[in-house]
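Regression test attached.
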Amino acid sequence: MAHDRIPENVPLLHLSGGGLGAALLRGATLVGAVAFVVTLFRDSSLAWKSYVVSWSYFTSIAAGGVAVAVVTWIVKAKWNWPVRRIHQSFSAFLPFSFLLFLPMLAFLREDYFPWIGMMADDAIVQKKQAWLNVPFLVSRNVVGVIALFGLALGFVYLALRPDMGRLRAASAVGEDDESSPRKTSWWVERLSAGWLGDAEEAERSYRRMTKMGPVVILVYAVVMTMLAFDWAMSLEPHWFSTLFGGWYFMGAFWGGLAATACIATWLKDRDEAVGRHIGTPVLWDLGKLTFAFTVFWTYLLWSQYIVIWYGKLPWEQAWINTRTGVPWGGLSALVVVLCFVVPFAGLLGARPKKNPRVLRAFASIVLAGLWLWHYMLVFPSLHHAGDPVFAIETPLIGLMFLGLFLTSVRWFLSTFPVVQAWQPPVDPEPLEAEGTS
Amino acid sequence: MATADLGKRGALPNPDVETYGEVNRDILKVLSRPGKGWWILFGLALAGVGLFLGSWFVQIVRGIGVSGLNAPVGWGVYITTFVFWVGIAHSGTLISAILFLFRAPWRQSIYRASEAMTVFAVMTAGLFPLIHVGRVWHAYWLVPYPNDRFLWPNFRSPLVWDVFAVTTYFTVSAVFFYLGTIPDLAAARDQARGLRQKFYKIVSLGWRGTDREWHHFSKAYIYLAALATPLVLSVHSVVSWDFAMSIVPGWHTTIFAPYFVAGAIFSGVAMVITLVVPMRKYFGLEKYLTVKHFEAMAKLCLLTGSIVLYAYLVEYFLAWYSGEPPERGSFWNRAFGHYWWANWTMLTCNGLVPIMLWFKRVRRSIAALFVISIFINIGMWFERFVIIVTSLSHEYEPWAWGLYRPSLVEMGILVGSFAWFGFWFLLFTRLLPPVAIAEMKEVVPPPLRGKAPADEAGAAAPAGSAT
């Protein structure tokens, strides 16, 4: 297949930083932050719920993006060579995500976790005390998130490193001055410390990434399950669904794919040099995967829905009844439309997947749908009579996260080469056929 | 790395195979005269089929009472074995359809055997509902059609969904299997003589290997692959819902559908390893089924095994987390109740033993993989036994708890089902090329007149010709 041919020499390309876009993103972050502070004084519960929704959404896209990078690495995928760096770039949000996580752990108590208040007189919740208690909640979340983010960043570091030597050599000669911002040198210096030489670095990264990849995925599955259980499922303390964690982390993985499709198509339109590398085949494949996960996500939703509907156990149905009845039914239907109906119909054919604008439109719809999905995981569970179903503050607070996420992705792509110049050898092992002697 | 190599990234060439003629000779050799070992195995399989039919006959004559089924355990070894065989069937379609869509080239030398396995496993599984209903002469009641009073069967019953799911799956996988064999049947036709040649002539549908034929063939193949892919998920999901829809503690849980699908692929890949290792040795196919193929299958086992382990852990955790006494009691009973041995066999075979697959040395040792694959097969049978029998024996009310003990007739049918499956698989190795000849040729340097640089030729040549 022709598109598996990876060119020998990929130039070191950078996204040009600054400009109107960067200013807009900074503005969005600022607006979001102000909205959060103002809402905090007016309706602290709304402010925090909105904060958690956007935190979990952008964190899952960042973690999901890295998971896509790792999974495609493990299976030795070749198709995504021009967009590997885009998957990796989402990891730049993880340090911010960690900082933004700390206030959630520090300040969210009875207002957010109903089980704290129910512990006194609810017999069923009392039985869960070994899991549902604040010290354990805080400690497992800190440990889990540090493990996941640390491993994800470690993996991305290994993937970046072989390019750093080349980048350093290029800046020393001066050939790279035009496109790379001045600040890169510090990061390049840091990330290429103790350089062993091109071939050896490539070998070492390959070996370590291959060893590390499966561990990242295991930790991803476990930690994302924990986040789903703690920050969404436990909000209705009597309710449980064994698939909930899997649904959450596969949704995150899908978010990582759709976001890659959005950024890749945007880069293709914006930057001619980069766009030349992001060819139709890779967009087609991104489109196919975005489509496939549309179906898969819906399958996971359906697998939970049908079992609960059929079983007709009141404590199981409560969660769904809340979301399908008044006043949440409309928004739930909208989630299904945005996450299934529209992308399924739109991305079914080959042509829409190959057209950058159309693909971006559908991937954006998916991303919007996923945000609303995160919203629906949290808000209906914590709804009190008189609360609005949807308040404008929620997306406004989301702007803070959106701005930070895109700023960090933008920083990553302008600091490090947009297209990974170093490509792994696919199979360095000898291809012997055994037992023929 | 040289550009030529970059172009072939990921393909699994077979360095010891050089010409198309060699591929035809080596693989079609399998179809020539059977050796002593084959006849011994075939004899054993026939004896087992005898046991199978004999046991079933006893049950038909004396009634379903000869089984150990009772209230509350109304589903026992038969349904366990049904789910086991449906599960085994899964990896065939996974390997042939999903890996095809994902462009994983290592599937090429194992997919034929695994597709055949799929078809025979569904044929085995399909017998079990008939056996389980007891009065088999009424088995056609399973087919959804209205009776004399125009009453339809209950479409809300997952058992009716099962009939649809399994028959659809059988149809699609059989068509997919047959389509893939057509070019190879033509290759066999060209080498066979006499009656065999006539047989191959009919079943190869006059294939000549022209460009036009290949064009249609590859179109049909990709469409069928795309149709078969959702089926891999749907069939076992529906089978899982046979259980999950009821509110039996231990059955009624949302993770069942993906968990059953992963488990099915886990057991199916293990069964492929179990079958292909002796086949490779006996027929001298080492050149075509290399260590790399086995390593790839081992990795697939590792992935699906990890999903299964995740499901076990989440199930145990949420059973505790539910705070519901019946839910908690059911899982406590699983681990420490009357059937503790079944549960721990399952956890050892499916959870502990596959941990060895994390080590590359184990994944590259065919002997080790063979042993591990047998453990997985055993573990996956016990998984279904644990789910079905222990859950039923320990539902809500203590006065309704009860035990089940499989009878000799049931064990005879269980053992016999393996023989029935083996019987078909052995016949398959004699009648159809067990490795896809046409696909093997894709990775062999094509025959060209004169001298041509190897990599350019690789790009320009048509993908394998039939003869």
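Expected vs. actual: identical. Residues 1-11, 452-467 of chain B have pLDDT under 50 and may be disordered.
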